[in-house]
Amino acid sequence: MRNYIKSAILIILTGFGVQVHANTNVSKDAKQDLVGLFQFFEDGCGYGNNFSTSKKQLKLFKDSFIGYSDDYYVKPLSNLPSKYRKSVKDIKLIEDDREVMHYIVSFKNATYRGYDLEKLDVSFIPGSEYDYHDHLYFKDAGFLKSKPSVKFAGMGSGWSQNEFDQGFNRENLSITCGAMPI
């Protein structure tokens, strides 16, 4: 609505011969904070609460790009929930030498609590019930300041991996939730 009002004012002022200089593309490059999408990381990665809203929201997002028929594939970007499409640069599927599947979601103009996001790596071993990991990567170490917001099962909030392969990784600039499928 605000852009329509700006456009109308610009047209009126221009019609009166007033010279106007304005940047009408401000929202095009604005960063989107995905804290709502990744609230799962703050909710103990879903442990003890299999029906949490944050778990459902992340599952819906992942289901929008993880495809499987006879083999795994990436669904079209148009399947992503519309509110996240502008923040996703691309999605790739990679199988590593250990037969682990990685769905790599690369972000553009996306943040988590104001810290620039690089990518989300959803990794799993096909056919395994418990070898799932979600790695949220950041562009710089500033994300480490989000420590008080993130809780991990069995350790409150913390910097290192716990027994469930969850935690902060300073070297990889990432936060990991793992071991349980969602």
What descriptive keywords fit this protein?
alpha+beta; 182 residues; globular; two-stranded antiparallel ribbon
Give an overview in words:
There is one protein chain. With 182 residues, the chain is an alpha+beta fold. The protein is 16% helix and 28% strand. It has three helices and ten strands, in the order H-E-H-E-E-H-E-E-E-E-E-E-E. The strands form two sheets. Strands 1, 4, 5, 6, 7, 8, 9 and 10 form an eight-stranded mixed beta sheet that branches. A two-stranded antiparallel ribbon has the order 2-3. Strand 6 and strand 7 form a beta hairpin. The longest helix is centred in the N-terminal third of the chain and has 14 residues, at 2-15. It is globular and about 40 Å long. The relative contact order is 0.14.
Tally of helical runs: 3
Mean pLDDT, to the nearest integer, reads: 77
Quote the beta fraction: 25-35%
User: From the helix content, strand content and strand pairing, which structural class follows?
Assistant: alpha+beta
Extract low-pLDDT stretches: 4-26, 155-164
Radius of gyration: 20 Å
Q: Biggest sheet, open or closed, and with what strands and sense?
A: 8 strands, mixed
What is the count of β-strands?
10
- CA-to-CA gap between the ends? 37 Å
Order of helices and strands: HEHEEHEEEEEEE
Characterize the overall form: globular
Percentage of residues in helical conformation: 10-25%
